[in-house]
Design a protein that fits this description.
535 residues, alpha+beta, Alpha-Beta Plaits, FAD/NAD(P)-binding domain, five-stranded parallel β-sheet, 13 helices, globular, binds flavin-adenine dinucleotide
Length: 535
């Protein structure tokens, strides 16, 4: 198979145009092109005055590959297709004596369990929340009726934190062993649209994610794994620096010397238990800020110009960074085109926001986090749990500012820049449910963060015209951008001071999104398998 890159076609090209372009590019006859598939499709919207084109990379099977390869020997955009197959590190013996445990069934735990199951290790998954259908009802309970279930919500339950999300699948991780490709291929097998394998910025959307999570659960069970919901791990069983098992909230104990800990960033009670048990952890940087909402049409126009609204391009996204004069960095985080702002607390008496979209991305507003980076050295020097304590303090204050009923505090961008409280909404209807209370957001974050965001808004407007429009809405607050701590691991992926504990994913500080959490799950599953096989 050969790969051709940089094949350019107009946005509105006919289906058969790609085949014709390949034949033409290679100077071969149509019947010599036996087969082809798209490896990547992107477009570059940065040059506003040139025609917007799709740029393809395609894998082709030809009748006479060797001849073509020789003819194009000096062509950098044509060569043999690299082998991208994922390979397991080993297979379990037919009799598995010690079954590994996986704590948490978010993307990291799902992929750890799936790959362990595919290798034959029959893992047992322990998830504090409920299965995804029931969890969806509980999550809507907060959004519709302001009723929170602390163990079944937008953060906790089957599928983990990314289940009610935009399902963006981009990541900047290096992928020499094709773990990222494995995640995407498994997602497609479970029901994701096939285009996630080749579009530049793939996304899945909330509705499809729910069904996919169920399908992946079924596969793990079919391979001999077990998944136990409403099974919260509340303690560790240890002996001489070696983990022996875990204890559940019910008091039940499960023995295993291999435990993958894929908790996500919101399991504050479990982090505290681990700290009390002496598991090594350290505070790490994260970010705080607001969600910002604009009409999607403003973003489309600024990003795509005359191509705004083109059905092949969908709703436009953006990525922004600004270095403020007080030394802080402000950036856009988890941008959700055509989506909604969601209530994302897992704890009573706290307010925190995030964003989600459906696959169609056709809601009226675009939203993203508008956040400022903070660090333990500068902002919360009090030890491994100090970041959590800061998050809790800010989220509790936001709850009070919003009216103590899970409404979020909000303000128009024009008023925020002018430093006055908002008293009435303008043209942008905020999407956060159960609702937004109009206030002055200045007291909701430390002064340096408010200052930096105020300075960043007009700067971002120079990149995206309309970004600092008066009526755009800020909704507070965004605090769970990533884990505030790291459960540090050694080269064998085990805790620095507790053998048999394999910290993984976002909560352990080793991932920052669905794709990277899935990849980390696979890497940790491989480490567990190697340890079990004595490799
Ligand atoms: C609303 C929202 C939108 C998002 N949008 C995107 C997006 O579009 N793209 C993207 O890449 N990322 C997105 N993210 C982030 C992404 O969801 C996370 O990075 C990812 O889910 C992390 O995966 P994880 O498996 O490490 O942890 P999680 O997904 O958080 O899963 C951890 C699991 O562990 C369980 N658990 C915790 N403690 C215990 C315990 N003691 N015992 C048993 N189980 C326990 C939890 O219930 C949870 O199910 C979004 C997050 C949210 C909240």
């Amino acid at each position: 198979m050969l790969r051709i890159t940089e094949l350019k076609l107009p946005l509105d090209h006919a289906d058969e145009a790609l085949r014709q372009a390949i034949v033409q590019r290679l100077g071969i006859s149509d019947q010599d092109l036996l087969n082809f598939s798209i490896f990547k499709r992107s477009y570059d919207a940065r040059k506003k005055n040139t025609e917007l084109l799709f740029i393809y990379a395609v894998d082709v099977t030809l009748a006479n590959e060797a001849v073509v390869l020789e003819r194009f020997a000096d062509d950098h955009n044509l060569g043999p297709t690299p082998d991208m197959a994922y390979r397991f590190v080993g297979q379990a013996p037919s009799e598995v004596r010690s079954r590994p445990l996986v704590v948490g069934f978010g993307p990291c735990g799902i992929f750890a369990a799936l790959v362990l199951a595919q290798m034959g290790f029959r893992p047992v998954v322990l998830e504090r929340g409920k299965e995804v259908r029931q969890r969806t009802k509980d999550t809507w309970g907060l959004w519709r009726k302001a009723q929170l279930n602390p163990d079944s919500n937008v953060q906790f339950g089957e599928g983990g934190a990314g289940t009610f999300s935009d399902g963006k699948l981009y990541s900047q991780i290096r992928d020499p062993q094709h773990h990222g490709r494995k995640v995407l291929e498994e997602f497609v097998k479970a029901g994701a649209p096939e285009e996630i394998l080749y579009v530049n910025k793939p996304h899945i959307g909330t509705f499809r994610l729910t069904g996919m999570v169920e399908n992946m659960r079924q596969e793990i069970i079919a391979l001999g794994g077990e998944i136990r919901f409403e099974s919260k791990v509340t303690d560790l069983l240890m002996e001489d620096g070696q983990l022996q098992g875990v204890q559940l909230a019910s008091g039940e104990q499960l023995m295993s010397r291999h435990v993958v800990l894929a908790l996500g960033h919101s399991a504050r009670d479990t982090f505290r238990m681990l700290h009390a048990r002496g598991v090594f952890m350290e505070a790490k940087p994260f970010s705080i800020g607001f969600r910002i909402e604009h009409p999607q049409s403003v973003i489309d126009k600024a990003r795509l110009g005359k191509y705004a609204g083109h059905p092949k391009l969908g709703a436009a996204d953006y990525k922004l960074v600004y270095h403020a004069s007080n030394g802080r960095s402000v950036y856009s985080f988890c941008m959700c085109p055509g989506g909604t702002v969601v209530a994302a607390t897992s704890e009573p008496g706290r307010v925190v926001t995030n964003g989600m979209s459906q696959y169609s991305r056709n809601e009226r507003n675009a939203n993203s986090g508008l956040v400022v980076g903070i660090s333990p050295e500068q902002d919360y020097p009090g030890g491994p749990l100090a970041g959590i304590e800061l998050q809790e303090k800010l989220e509790s204050a936001a709850y009070l500012l919003g009216g103590s009923n899970y409404q979020a505090p909000g303000q128009l961008v024009g008023d925020f820049i002018a430093g006055r409280a908002t008293t009435a909404l303008g043209s942008v209807e905020p999407s956060y449910k159960p609702g937004v209370t109009l206030v002055d957001l200045a007291p909701s974050l430390p002064a340096f963060a408010i200052e930096a965001i105020r300075e960043a808004l007009p700067a971002f407007d120079r990149q995206i015209k309309g970004y600092s429009m008066h009526d755009a809405v800020l909704t507070g607050i965004e605090t769970r951008t990533s884990s505030p701590l790291r459960i540090t691991r050694d080269d064998s992926f085990q805790s620095l001071n507790l053998k048999g504990l394999f910290p993984a994913g976002e909560g352990a500080g080793y991932a920052g999104g669905i794709l990277s959490a899935g990849v980390d799950g696979i890497r940790v599953a491989e480490a567990v398998a190697k340890s079990l096989l004595g490799l």
